[in-house]
Amino acid sequence: MYVDSHCHLDFPELAAELPRVLSAMAAAHVTHALCISVDLPDFPRVHALATAHANLYASAGTHPDYPDTEEPSVEQLVALAQLPKVVAIGETGLDYYRLEGDLEWQRQRFRTHIRAARAAGRPLVIHTRSAADDTLAIMREEGADAVGGVMHCFTETWDVAEAALALGFHISFSGIVTFKNAVALKDVARRVPLDRMLIETDSPYLAPVPFRGKQNEPAYVPHVAAEIARLRETPVADIAVATSDNFFRLFRIDRHVH
């Protein structure tokens, strides 16, 4: 019924108890999950999860928060995108919140990922924090609209969402939308077209209310859907169905493969 469009099951906290995490996920009617790559040296770990479990998928990419790692090339990312169960390029983008100084390397890395996505014909998983204007500018300059993708764990304003939607991107909501102080984000959740919305956990981080402050996991993604349903005054089943349909369509996944 639900899909977790962005999680990190290879991270030690979740990998250490994977059988329990997957069992809880099934019990919560979360049928599929996309395991996201953040650093190419760790990609084999992410890919192994996807190939070992019929309902898990993988991305290939390097997160902007990793300054001291090998820079991926277009060719390298394109090659990884051809592997079984790899359905997206990313997580990529810009993050000016945690890092300071000359961040041109981040912008170049982001461009590399967009070029690889275009060459491989794969959608992008984009992270942006305190960098919305530059993120959108590079997406436009590099033709990210040719492949589309998702603005994951969205925390920006409606204006940013509208610009991303205009480029053919989906907007994904995490547990943050359940936080009381996320007033502007709740407004975005009311306004994003239902056919362009995804839900995610970003686990092990950002657990939704009532688990805020605890370790997150895919089984908690229905709480994200429930809050969006409350905000939009619509049945939660409508949110579950739409976000799942959007996931399978965007990442070109056959939902019936188990």
Q: Tell me the β content.
A: 15-25%
Structural class: alpha/beta
Fourth CATH level, the homologous superfamily:
Metal-dependent hydrolases
- The rounded Rg comes to 17 Å
- Per CATH, the class reads Alpha Beta
Tell me the count of domains: 1
Helix content: 40-55%
Instruction: Give helix and strand order, one letter per element, not per position.
Output: EHHEHEHEHEHEHEHEHH
Number of helices: 10
Looking at the overall shape, the CATH architecture is Alpha-Beta Barrel
Strand order of the largest sheet: 1-2-3-4-5-6-7-8
Mean pLDDT: 97
Shape field: globular
- Number of distinct beta strands: 8
Which residues form runs of ≥5 with pLDDT under 50? Answer: none
Mind summarizing the main beta sheet? 8 strands, parallel
Task: Considering the chains and any ligands shown, give keywords for the structure.
single chain; 258 residues; alpha/beta; TIM Barrel; globular
Describe the structure.
This protein is an alpha/beta fold. The protein has a single domain, classed as Alpha-Beta Barrel (TIM Barrel). Helices cover 40% and strands 17% of the residues. The chain has 10 helices and 8 strands. Strand 5, helix 6 and strand 6 form a beta-alpha-beta unit. Helix 4 crosses helix 5, helix 5 crosses helix 6 and helix 9 packs across helix 10. The longest helix has 17 residues. The model has no long low-confidence stretch (mean pLDDT 97).
Task: Give a topology summary.
Layout: E1 2-7, H1 12-15, H2 18-27, E2 30-35, H3 43-52, E3 56-60, H4 74-81, E4 86-95, H5 104-120, E5 124-129, H6 132-141, E6 149-151, H7 158-166, E7 169-173, H8 183-191, E8 197-199, H9 221-232, H10 236-250
Helix pairs in contact: 4-5, 5-6, 9-10
